[in-house]
Amino acid sequence: MTCLARRWAAAALLPLVSIPGLAGRPAQAAPAHPSRYSLEATVAPAAMKARDCRFDAACVFAPDPSGGDDHAALQAAVAKAATLVVPAVLKADGSVFRAARPATVLLGAGTYRLGRGLQLPPDVNLRGRGITDTTVSMITANWQNFTYGYLISWDYHTRRAGSSNLVSDLTVNGNCREGAGAPVRRDLPGRPGAYCDFRGPRGDLASTNAGGGIAVGDRWTVRQVRFTNLEYFKVWVGDGVKDVRIVDNRFDNWGGAESGDEDNVGGGSRNDGVVVEDNQFDKTIRGNSFDFTNAIRTTVRHNSVTADRAVADARGDTSLYGTMYLEGVVQATVADNDLYGAQISLKTNGGYDHSGENRDITNPRDSVISGNRISYAADAGIVIVYDDYRDADGTAGTAGGWDDHSTAAGDHVVRPGGNNVVRDNVVRYSGRSGILVIGSYGHAKNAPDTIIGNRVHNSGWGGSTGYDTGAGLFDTAGIGLSIGDGDRIYGNVVGDHGGRRTTWYGIQLGARRAPTVPSNTVLTGPAGETNAVTRVIAGAYRTVALAPEAPSGLTASGATLSWEESYALEGRPVAGYRVYRDDRLAADLPVGSAAIPGNLLTADEAGFEDAAAGTAGWTAGFRTTLDRVDGTGAAGTGAMSLTSGGTGEVSFAGRALAATPGQAYTSVVSAKAMGAGRWVRAGLKFTTATGTVDNLATSNRATTDSADGWITSSYTVEAPAGAVSVQAWYLIEGTVAGEVHLVDRIGLVAGTRTEQWTDPEPSAKTSAYHVVAYTAGENSALSTVAAS
Predict the structure, then answer these.
(1) For the chain, what is the mean pLDDT?
(2) Closest CA to 773 of 556, 593, 610, 628
């Protein structure tokens, strides 16, 4: 397993919207605080006392620390204890008939220094006098002896049915900072982000994989152990080990300590039945709080994690830390954890090299994420990711289950996911969406997920309004879904608390440019439960499949915004534009702005408001009759009617205006059918010095007008070489005799922007302005600019 560099390989939450001077700025002061980190035991019993060992025939006192290398003395004590063990008696079927009687090595107070790792055989416990009284520390001059190794580990050559081991009541110190790591509270690690001392100032004197904490075996319990100052994994649970308990431990980098970026509790390798509970992870940790890859029946509960961007910034490391990752883990329970500044992510093992146990892909399945409290996650609070990859022949994996493995050289197994439950969590102030379910391959998920009873507040707190997940682009919503058939999302409460709102939508279904789409999503529970969505900025639900294209080219000049027309999509005619100032709707512009910025046409030619002007400036095309009508304009009351004299098309053209070769020109027109809808095409006519006339028009067939409302067609092109004049030119194709269409809000501009809005009440402070195009039922993505 590598470190953070490959995190989010299938779901890299990348910023999409950047607002100069605003990005990352919290909307208001944060009211919540992380959980208290304390070295005091939460559920663990008191440390073993000397008198308890004296009256226990299976207890061995370790020699006191020598100040030198204590490995030989401790290994001898362990060997002596091993002779006192009474192994378990098994039944014929392999189950335990009589439990083993373990033996114990009791360490003294002080620091035991090890020049190589200490191995515990089955049924031998290692106990200290207390988490602040006994320390086991690495002699870094012997770092080679700890390459891919640990200060304390199971005996890799010996497994015994029915055995158990306990390591408790001590500190494991890897001496990343030589002599540091005392239990002295610190807000920052010592020399944050610098290489461990034994690796040298450039990190090239020793391996990055040297000096882990504890590697556990079958039925081990690690309890009331403090892990600090370690380069490699702090706790490792691998090699198919079973029934491990990691309980009531502490992870920090106090007392001038620092650590490498490997996980605090890491492992996988098909381990089974591991419980990680009641542990505390201080903000000075480095790496993920928890990360298993390829595991089953994992339980992670009652843990508290704090991550702090100030610590990350001091390290110069912008990657996430503190995250709970379950990669290729099935039948997991993640419950009642408290995370501040960190997140929970269920994903595949696809972010690793596709070899060994990661050749086959396992998707999250049959897991429950419940009762967790997640505050101020830098990205989304809870994420579920479904993924696969293609073999050399371009085909995806062959579907299989947990016990299926690939055998053919050119194929791999993909274990589809789904049937995960996300319920009763509280997700507050996430930097992006609160809960996300995303995917890159539809076949990677074959059962619906259930998202119920969650409370999601103030999503998008970090300033994000949209972002790239690596599997589609999302707007900031309380809950987002972009993969699955029949997923259930109901009974959730989504909204914003406090002052400025940051959540744009309650529930988002689908993502832009996504390789997968959700279908048949259930939004009402069996007892009629719906989702309660309050105080979001734009709307309770967002269905991306119905959304128009976003406006582009948004700029601000003072408090005046201008932008380009949204490109019309089939079945999604743009009905207008909405402008938001920060979190408030500032303007609704049906059809578009009344005035077209920089319009080369006169007001009479553009708007038909003056009855006396009539249709002056416009010339009718073949079989077309022009007339001015009143009381039905797109902007104002006036419009121009086009009556068809036969079958084919109606058209009209404006005055010839001086053109500059190479200059981009845009024409725009809004149209409304008085009966059947037809294809409306905005165009331009260029005349060159030789008299050649180029008639050019949009080929976008989505601009079909209707009797229900106005649609806008626009066309942009550069004036050809030798152009001396340009004319606005428009046509409506497919008409029949007697048919009538209306046109209004006509424009010709040198450039591309044909929409404009000026804030009538601009703020003295910089604000974020957001513009969306909208249809009758859905918004586009946001275009954003900062202005004052």
Answers:
(1) 94
(2) 593
Tokens of 220: 């081990």
- The residues facing 666 across adjacent strands are 716, 749
Quote the radius of gyration of the chain (alpha carbons, Å): 33
CA–CA dist 152, 146 (Å, integer): 10
Mean pLDDT value across residues 168-187: 97
What is the spatial distance between Cα 321 and Cα 308, in angstroms, rounded to a whole number?
Answer: 9
CATH superfamily of this structure's domain 551-788: Galactose-binding domain-like (2.60.120.260)
Residue 607 DSSP symbol = H
CB 787 within 8 A of CB 556: yes
Q: What are phi and psi of 271, to 5 degrees?
A: -65, 160
User: Quick check: helix, strand or coil at residue 664?
Assistant: strand
Q: Looking at residues 392-412, what average pLDDT do you find?
A: 95
Q: Are 341 and 378 in contact (CB under 8 A)?
A: yes
3-state class of 356 per DSSP? Answer: helix
Residue 9 has pLDDT above 50, yes or no: no
Identify each DSSP E strand in 283-375 by its residue range: 290-296, 299-301, 304-306, 324-330, 333-335, 338-340, 344-347, 361-362, 368-370, 373-375
Three-state secondary-structure class, residue 665:
strand
- pLDDT > 70? residue 7: no
pLDDT tens, residue by residue, 690-704: 999 999 999 999 999
Structure tokens at 723: 């152009």
d(CA 236, CA 241): 10
- The backbone torsions φ and ψ at residue 44, rounded to the nearest 5 degrees and listed phi first, read -75, 150
Query: Which CA distances in Å does 569 have to 308, 404, 572, 580, 702?
Result: 43, 44, 5, 23, 5
What pLDDT does 499 receive? 83
CA-to-CA dists, residue 725 to 41, 595, 651, 677, 689, angstroms: 84, 23, 19, 32, 9
Q: Measured between alpha carbons, how far is 574 from 711 in angstroms, rounded to an integer?
A: 6
Quote helix, strand, coil % in the chain, to nearest 5.
5, 40, 55
* Residue 433 pLDDT greater than 50, yes or no: yes
Question: Is residue 28 pLDDT above 60, yes or no?
Answer: no
Pair 783, 625: CB distance under 8 Å: no
**CA–CA distance from 517 to each of 435, 520, 570 (Å)?**
17, 10, 18
CB atoms within 10 A of CB 455: 17
Band of pLDDT at residue 157, cut at 50, 70 and 90: confident
Output the pTM of the full model: 0.92
Query: Is 80 exceeded by the pLDDT of residue 301?
Result: yes
User: What is the residue whose two structure tokens read 């400036």?
Assistant: 617
Report CA torsion sign: 72, 74, 78, 81.
Answer: positive
Residues 639 and 633 sit within 8 Å (Cβ to Cβ): yes
Instruction: Tell me the C-alpha distance between 58 and 79, whole Å.
Output: 12
Contact 778, 542 (CB under 8 A): yes
So what's the pLDDT on residue 498? Answer: 81
Cβ atoms of 655 and 600 closer than 8 Å: no
Superfamily of domain 1-6+49-321: Single-stranded right-handed beta-helix, Pectin lyase-like (2.160.20.10)
Closest of 95, 120, 116, 93 to residue 216, by C-alpha: 120
pLDDT above 60: residue 79: yes
Q: Whole-angstrom Cα distance, residue 695 to residue 721? A: 15
Same fold, 1-6+49-321 and 551-788: no
The tokens describing 619, both together, are 């010339």
Distance separating alpha carbons of residues 366 and 352, to the nearest angstrom: 22
Nearest to 197 by CA among 210, 188, 186, 184: 210
The yes-or-no verdict on residue 369 having pLDDT over 70 is yes
Burial class of residue 557 in the structure, from the number of CB atoms within 10 Å of its CB (0-12 exposed, 13-18 middle, 19+ buried):
exposed
Alpha helix ranges (H) inside 268-385: 309-315
Q: Where in the chain are the domains?
A: 1-6+49-321, 323-546, 551-788
